[in-house]
Write a structure and sequence with these properties.
alpha+beta, 5-stranded antiparallel β-sheet, about 20% strand, binds guanosine-5'-monophosphate, binds zinc ion
Length: about 120
């Protein structure tokens, strides 16, 4: 897609703080972080939105989801499965979909947001 900002980031034609890449996915820091850790996981292929996905994207969507805890761990907001709710760490994953879902960039992406529960106003 010629006019898509995330396609341009995936192609390397506009810069980003890239933290991960493989044949299917890239990940980088959100330019306007809503929390101490705010990462975006983005497929290289242009797909407008989660609502445009079908069975062909099952594996890629699984990869996106499984990458989230790895990147969270690497950026200091990981969570150890089974550690319980009194443990520290953890993150939020978010896929905004459509206007009422708050989607601003129409290239599928998953937010990984972490660090001191910013969405609750707690520190
Ligand atoms: P959405 O609202 O579509 O779910 O989220 C889009 C996200 O992309 C926003 O959090 C916004 O800050 C981020 N974003 C928009 N343009 C750029 C950019 O050029 N570079 C980076 N790194 N993030 C961007
Ligand atoms: Zn795109």
């Amino acid at each position: 897609m010629d006019n898509c900002i995330f396609c341009k980031i995936a192609a390397g034609t506009i810069p980003s703080k890239l933290i991960y890449e493989d044949a299917d996915l890239i990940a980088f820091h959100d330019i306007n972080p809503a929390a101490p850790v705010h990462l975006l996981i983005v497929p290289r292929a242009h797909i407008d939105t989660l609502a445009g996905c079908d069975d062909r994207q099952t594996a890629m969507l699984g990869k996106m989801l499984l990458l989230a805890p790895k990147l969270a761990q690497e950026h200091g907001c990981g969570y150890v499965a089974g550690a319980g709710e009194t443990a520290t760490g953890g993150f939020k994953t978010l896929v905004n979909t459509g206007p009422d879902g708050g989607q601003e960039v129409y290239h599928l992406h998953m937010h990984v947001i972490g660090g001191s529960r910013p969405w609750r106003g707690q520190r």
